[in-house]
Structures are given as C-alpha cells and as structure tokens.
Amino acid sequence: MRSVPRLRLYLDTNIFLDLDHLLGRKGKSSQLIREIANGRFEGFTSHFILSELAGVLKELGVPREYINKILVCVQKFPNVQIVFHEYIMFLDMPENILNTCVQCRDALHFVVAKYLAVDKIVTRDKGFKNTVDHVIPYVTPEQLIP
C-alpha cells in the first residue's frame, strides 16, 4: 500500500505569533501545528523566523525569559523543519521579487519557500499573499483546518 504524499507547508512568522494569541487572534494556528506534529502535513520555515519572533515579542513588551522559552519551544515542534539559508537559494531568485515584496523579509521567506518547493505558504499577511500567490498558493490555517 502506497502512502499519500503529505501537503508541504511553509509557515510564515505570524502563524507562530498566533500560537500564543499575542496578536489577539483566535485562529487555528495551534490546531494546524498539532496536525503537522501528528504527521498530517509537512511543515517548513526559515531560521529567520526566530529573529522575527524575538523582535516582535520584544516590541510587545514580553519579558526576555518568556521570549527565550517561546523560541526554544518553536525549535522543538515535531515535524516542523527550520531551514537555514544557503546562497544557492538566492541564485534563482526572480529579479523583481525585491521590488514586489512589501518587505525584504517577505522576499526572504518567499525564496526559501520556493527553493523548498512547498505546496502552499501559510500566512495571514495579505501584502505577502498578493506578492506570492501567483507562484506559490497562499492559505490561512482556517482554510486547511475547517
């Protein structure tokens, strides 16, 4: 019996922020992470999210000790691979990506997701969605977990 290939998902930073409801959302990010941990999906993200998470949490006034605990937890999520950037990822970067991405960090996430050949990017960032949706489909956690 052949196994069905799992959907490969690139998780944007805001999905991890959503886990602790730090942004005031009551979405399904936690449930999506559980589904990834249980093997329903393959999860990928960039190591860059660790610095993004730390920066946003610091801006929100979260104590340093709590930020450390969150970052350690994120790195231990089962079945979520944190990928380190390599120069090879940027060699095939479309020339216009830095012009079309709202923020440079969105371009970085896009390049890593494209290099990994993921099926979908999971994000709540509408600016990011408008940039990447024509290359890699964008979804929210709620679209994956009805």
Protein described:
The chain has 146 residues and is α/β, with parallel strands linked by helices. The chain has a single domain, classed as 3-Layer(aba) Sandwich (Rossmann fold), CATH 3.40.50. 50% of the residues lie in helices and 14% in strands. A 5-stranded parallel β-sheet has the order 3-2-1-4-5. Helix 1 packs across helix 3. It is globular. The two termini are 28 Å apart. The mean pLDDT is 81.
Secondary structure elements and pairings:
Blueprint: E1 7-11, H1 13-19, H2 29-37, E2 41-46, H3 48-59, H4 64-76, E3 80-83, H5 87-91, H6 97-100, H7 104-115, E4 120-122, H8 126-132, E5 138-139, H9 141-144
Parallel strand pairs: 1-2, 1-4, 2-3, 4-5
Helix pairs in contact: 1-3, 3-4
User: What is the tally of beta strands?
Assistant: 5
> What is the spatial order of strands in the main beta sheet?
3-2-1-4-5
* Largest sheet data: 5 strands, parallel
- Fill in the CATH topology: Rossmann fold
Radius of gyration: 15 Å
**How many angstroms separate the termini?**
28 Å
Mean pLDDT: 81
Question: Superfamily at the CATH H level?
Answer: 5'-nuclease
State which percent range the strand residues make up.
5-15%
Q: Could you estimate the helical fraction of the residues in percent?
A: 40-55%
Query: How many DSSP H or I helices?
Result: 9
Poorly predicted runs? none
Task: Give helix and strand order, one letter per element, not per position.
Answer: EHHEHHEHHHEHEH
Task: Please give the CATH class.
Answer: Alpha Beta
Give me the CATH architecture, please.
3-Layer(aba) Sandwich
